[in-house]
């Protein structure tokens, strides 16, 4: 049964935040609406109001902010994919965004909406986590910034309160000697939800040893993960195939230990390890 609701669209960001301050508990926010509309039509959500933020120009820009590049939460995937600065600076995220849904979905879906939806299988999240993304969150009378890694706390669950709105994504650029990779496993090359996805960012020092490494894996646990134990296990070492293989297997072991053994473990363990290994090879072996 379809939900009945009142459609609301404000003319400014402040009006939007004021509306959420007064009605946030009975409101669902619509940016692209790609997930929301399914829930409304299916009747699984029954808000009193649907607040359309898609035309708010104040959160549709890309700009420098302190040591970050700030991405407005209302920009669509297609707009972000076509931005040459983002493609050059965040290539793993650029590839990940191209894996989201179909062209029609990317034309209306937003990065802010993807974060707020907090799906464990979100393609864009690992690509942001390797850049230690921070999320700008506003309400009528205040602004806070929270690390993406801490914001998402479970499947489709996060720390946002009903009166808050994601207004920006802060990504920290890296030096030109860093390389990045994003890969996924899914049933099809497009129009599919990732079974496993991974992003890796890293660099070598002048001696050819691993200086910096960040690994993020999604779609295998309640939340996307940073794999710091595996990262630290090979920092300072030369990136030989065996070393990278051991780190990849450690990633898989940590994830299986976290979520527990399931009927899919026999498939997931080698799938995770193999995918992470390919990303590590992209980033570290190609630098030699």
How does this structure look, described?
It is built from 12 helices and 14 strands. By secondary structure, it is of the alpha+beta class. The chain folds into 3 domains: 6-52, Uridine Diphospho-n-acetylenolpyruvylglucosamine Reductase, domain 2 (2-Layer Sandwich); 57-171, Uridine Diphospho-n-acetylenolpyruvylglucosamine Reductase, domain 3, CATH 3.30.465.10; 195-287, 2-Layer Sandwich (Enolase-like, domain 1), CATH 3.30.390. The strands form 4 sheets. A 5-stranded antiparallel beta sheet has the order 4-5-10-6-7. It has a 4-stranded antiparallel beta sheet with strand order 11-12-13-14. Strands 1-3-2 form a 3-stranded parallel beta sheet, with helices on one face. Helix 10 (228-234) packs antiparallel against helix 11 and helix 11 runs antiparallel to helix 12.
Would you kindly provide a brief summary of this structure?
This protein has 288 residues and is an alpha+beta fold.
SSE layout:
Elements: E1 6-9, H1 13-23, E2 27-30, H2 36-42, E3 49-52, E4 62-65, E5 68-72, H3 77-81, H4 84-89, H5 91-98, H6 103-108, H7 111-117, H8 124-129, E6 134-139, E7 142-147, H9 148-151, E8 152-154, E9 157-158, E10 165-171, E11 179-185, E12 196-204, E13 210-218, E14 225-226, H10 228-234, H11 241-259, H12 265-284
Parallel strand pairs: 1-3, 2-3
Antiparallel strand pairs: 4-5, 5-10, 6-7, 6-10, 8-9, 11-12, 12-13, 13-14
Estimate the mean pLDDT confidence: 93
Shape: globular
Main-sheet strand order equals 4-5-10-6-7
Helices and strands, in order, run as: EHEHEEEHHHHHHEEHEEEEEEEHHH
Q: Tally of extended strands?
A: 14
CATH level-1 class of the largest domain: Alpha Beta
Q: What's the total helix number?
A: 12
Low-confidence stretches: none
Task: Note the gap between the termini.
Answer: 59 Å
Largest sheet: 5 strands, antiparallel
CATH topology heading of the largest domain: Uridine Diphospho-n-acetylenolpyruvylglucosamine Reductase, domain 3
Helix content: 25-40%
